[in-house]
Amino acid sequence: MDSDIKPFNISISDAKIAQLHHKLEHATFPDETPLSDDWAGGVPLSDFKRLVNYLKGDFDWRQQERRFIEVAKILPLLTNPDSQDQPCFDDVAPSLPNFGFSSGPSKPGSVLEQYAESCHKLMLKLGYSNYATQGGNWGNGITRFMDIRYGPASSSATKKSGAVWASHINHNLAVPPSISTIPQHGSLVYLKYLFPTYSNREKEGLARTHRFWEEGAAYNGLHCHNPTTIGIALRDSPVALLSWIYGKLYDWTDSYPWTDDEILTWISIYQFASAGPKAGCRVYYHSATAKKVEEYNPRVKLGVSTFPKDLLMSPSYHYRTLGPLVFENWHNKGGHFAAWEVPELLVEDMRVMFGGLVKSGEINFPGPK
């Protein structure tokens, strides 16, 4: 392990917290209408006012800042298996540039590729020459770029630079098969595309994906094309930030019972982020053309988990256009934030996939050096 790696402690200044409270004290709210407290019109106003009052009053950021990361629920499950038959993982959960308390990337170009490079360099710095990855949300695209750039036998994956041997992803969207991709995934997959017979869960997944693009993706277009426009509002107004993100936490989960502390901790991570809350918007702008993640990659073994209330889902056979699929599971519950909503289901999939590959001798991880 590199000797210059040092611990990092989150410590937001009292002045920043005081400034947040000052802005919240002077917040103004829209007039009540018949839609004010109906999720059909967006965030319910009375619910929102309660959160604002709690954020400026009894919410204890100091307690939360010492312990929060999105994967906090899955880490103890991965490192402390229930039995000797289950694999035990070394876990590295990077804080992505532009998010949380990491700085933003300085180079132009695709940020997902830069994130992949940063994550790979981090693994090497920690002493891991071979490793597996898991990613959902932005982590899906980052994982895919890591597969492409650092998978076995790729131009960038030498013995010196290390390699990704297997990847597991959720929040999945795959392109349909085509005649040109038959040599990669086989003719049967293409025939299923020509003569589709979807299962009920696939039909529901396609309907939810369509509904998301029709009704829920307006934010995506704004982030992709005008990130500064929304970024200005989010940077200046914690009320705007809370409204913008809270709606997503509700819409993108499978009736998950969010507590006020959970909601406000997520919002505060953006509010106090080193690069500012607007930085997350720029990720969309710089990732709008990241199409390589949809290409077939034959070098890295792939696993896929699908959760019914996620935003994007494809028919099962589409996933075979991404790479050599060795694991697939469709769950009956869970949404976009699977690591937070249903950590036990996500971890079990990782145990089955990665543990099975190690037991069969298909992959081997020597551990850090």
Automatic annotation (TrEMBL):
Keywords: Aromatic hydrocarbons catabolism, Hydrolase. The keyword Transport does not apply. The keyword Hydrolase applies. SUPFAM superfamilies: alpha/beta-Hydrolases. Gene3D superfamilies: alpha/beta hydrolase (3.40.50.1820). Residues 5-70 form the Epoxide hydrolase N-terminal domain. Belongs to the peptidase S33 family. This is Epoxide hydrolase N-terminal domain-containing protein. It comes from Podospora pseudopauciseta.
